[in-house]
Design a protein that fits this description.
By secondary structure, the chain is mostly helical. The chain has helices at about 5-25, 35-55, 65-95, 95-105, 115-120, 125-135, 150-170; strands at about 140-145, 145-150. The protein has a two-stranded antiparallel ribbon. Strand 1 and strand 2 (about 145-150) form a beta hairpin. Helix 1 packs antiparallel against helix 2 and helix 2 packs antiparallel against helix 3 (about 65-95). It starts with a helix and ends in an 18-residue tail after the last helix.
């Protein structure tokens, strides 16, 4: 393997992750979205580690062994996969703005009235869709018309995102955006 191939391996793994994710999503439409993501990221991650451990050992500098290469490649790949999952897939999955733009484009010259938009994008529909996704994803369970959390990992991730919002946006709570007087002055 050449040095270029060694350098590109995490990016090839990201491409593999995306292809596996598309195949899983199309072949198994009922598969929970978080499970599909986990499987696609995992398959490519195993490939990265396998290539690092069993592939180019004879072409590595003496100071770098297969375990070190596996660690670096895996870390690089996981960061790239994170960017795909959070920055691309999740954006298209949950952003109403993107879906609304697609609907407006599909309506063409006719456009959509506010009533038509609100019939599709009302609070009840949004909550129903999100609850259904969380139930099928194993994050929430429903019993006797009451909803409960199931997966603590998702609760921890939600709390982390709230903390990041507070830290980055300077909000005093997770429910509010900072007012102009709370924002730091530009330097």
């Amino acid at each position: 393997m050449t040095r270029a191939v060694l350098t590109l391996t995490p990016f090839v793994a990201l491409g593999t992750c995306i292809v596996v994710h598309v195949i899983l999503s199309r072949a198994f439409p009922g598969l929970a979205r978080p499970l599909g993501i986990l499987l696609s990221v995992g398959v490519a991650g195993v490939g990265v580690v396998g290539v690092a451990l069993f592939g180019p050992a004879d072409r590595l500098p003496a100071a770098v062994g297969p375990p070190e290469l596996a660690a670096v490649w895996l870390l690089t790949y996981v960061l790239l996969a994170y960017c795909y999952v959070i920055g691309f897939f999740n954006l298209g999955e949950s952003a109403r703005r993107i879906r609304l733009l697609i609907d407006l484009h599909q309506a063409g010259r006719r456009g959509l009235s506010l009533e038509e938009i609100l019939s599709t994008y009302n609070a009840r529909m949004i909550v129903d869709v999100r609850l259904h996704r969380m139930i099928t994803g194993g994050q929430v369970r429903q019993q006797d018309g009451v909803y409960y959390t199931r997966a603590r990992i998702m609760l921890a991730a939600a709390r982390l995102l709230v903390w990041l919002k507070i830290a980055y946006l300077g909000s005093r709570s997770e429910l509010s955006a900072p007012t102009p007087s709370e924002r730091p002055a530009p330097r």
